[in-house]
């Protein structure tokens, strides 16, 4: 299961959860996960079940009319706690050689890529240290896209826009996120010489960049709306932004704390309307 397939799978599960009753969704998810696990596809089964759990919990909170921010927070927290507990149990069963097992799995996963491009060097130990943030980023991407694309892919494009979808354009992190970002930046590149501190800081830094990217995307989306860019062009530019301008958009999201770009855009629109 590639990262893109995993993230886009959240959209399909979100549509499935909307069309099936609660027990039908959870029952089908458990049966499919158990079938994959029994068939020897253990990693695929765990990945699929984590996605079923992610979308299922988020949908429950959405039905309870939680906001996008709080629904995402509680969903990610629940998934993280369960994943941490499962990982700790696996480490207990595997013993001291657990790290070698993880490194062996990573090497097997990236072996085709290394064979295609021998000059491409992967530091597997460093990759292993940031795996928690990679998983968290995949979960965040799956949640974001499930809200963004659900109405369009479910064939309900002409229906009223769901509240969650509208909240994406208003997404803004609390001010404390800036200080967490600064702290993770110092921990990652401050040269403290403590591997545990650097590993934790690197994971927090990666998650912060993803969060700032989502805030930057909200700014870019509002800009596209103000210039009335056609939906086709919006989609094309969004693909280009995700592929080539991830860091640039993350910087826009960070700068939004001080410049409040969306408020400035709204103010300019009001001034333009008064003049005309």
Question: Can you tell me about this structure?
Answer:
This protein has 276 residues and is mainly alpha-helical. It has two domains: 1-158, no CATH class; 169-276, no CATH class. 82% of the residues lie in helices and 0% in strands. It contains 13 helices and no strands. The protein has helices at 3-19, 22-38, 42-63, 68-94, 98-116, 124-129, 131-153, 163-168, 176-189, 195-226, 231-244, 246-259, 261-275. Helix 1 crosses helix 3, helix 9 crosses helix 10 (195-226) and helix 10 (195-226) packs parallel to helix 13. The longest helix is centred in the C-terminal third of the chain and has 32 residues, at 195-226. It is globular. It starts with a helix and ends with a helix. The model has no long low-confidence stretch (mean pLDDT 87).
Layout: helices, strands, pairs:
Blueprint: H1 3-19, H2 22-38, H3 42-63, H4 68-94, H5 98-116, H6 124-129, H7 131-153, H8 163-168, H9 176-189, H10 195-226, H11 231-244, H12 246-259, H13 261-275
Question: Quick gist of this model?
Answer:
The chain is mainly alpha-helical and 276 residues long. Helix content is 82%, strand content 0%.
Keywords:
276 residues, mainly alpha, 2 domains, 82% helix
Helix percentage: over 70%
* Mean residue pLDDT: 87
The helix/strand order is HHHHHHHHHHHHH
Query: Count of DSSP helices?
Result: 13
Termini separation (Å)? 54 Å
Proportion of beta-strand residues: under 5%
Low-confidence stretches: none
Taken together, the total number of domains comes to 2
Which shape, going by the Cα principal axes?
globular
- Biggest sheet overview: none
Rg over CA atoms: 21 Å
């Amino acid at each position: 299961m590639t990262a893109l397939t995993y993230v886009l799978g959240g959209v399909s599960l979100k549509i499935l959860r909307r069309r099936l009753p609660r027990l039908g969704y959870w029952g089908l998810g458990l049966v499919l996960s158990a079938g994959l696990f029994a068939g020897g596809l253990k990693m695929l089964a765990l990945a699929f079940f984590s996605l079923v759990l992610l979308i299922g919990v988020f949908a429950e909170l959405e039905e309870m009319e939680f906001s996008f921010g709080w629904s995402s927070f509680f969903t990610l927290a629940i998934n993280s706690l369960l994943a941490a507990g499962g990982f700790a149990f696996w480490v207990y069963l595997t013993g001291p050689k657990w790290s070698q097992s993880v490194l062996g799995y990573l090497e097997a996963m990236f072996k085709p890529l290394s064979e295609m491009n021998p000059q491409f060097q992967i530091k597997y130990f460093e990759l292993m240290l940031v795996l928690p943030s990679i998983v968290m980023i995949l979960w965040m991407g799956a949640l974001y896209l499930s809200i963004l694309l659900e109405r369009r892919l479910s064939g309900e494009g002409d229906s009223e826009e769901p509240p969650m979808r509208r909240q994406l354009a208003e997404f803004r992190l609390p001010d404390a996120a800036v200080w967490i970002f600064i702290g993770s930046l110092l921990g990652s590149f401050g040269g403290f010489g403590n591997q545990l501190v650097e590993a934790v800081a690197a994971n927090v830094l990666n998650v912060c960049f993803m969060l700032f990217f989502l805030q930057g995307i909200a700014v870019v989306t509002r800009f596209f709306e103000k210039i009335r860019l056609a939906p086709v062009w919006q989609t094309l530019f969004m693909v280009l932004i995700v592929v080539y301008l991830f860091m640039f958009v993350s910087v826009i999201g960070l700068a939004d704390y001080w410049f409040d770009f969306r408020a400035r855009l709204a103010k300019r629109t009001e001034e333009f309307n008064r003049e005309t």
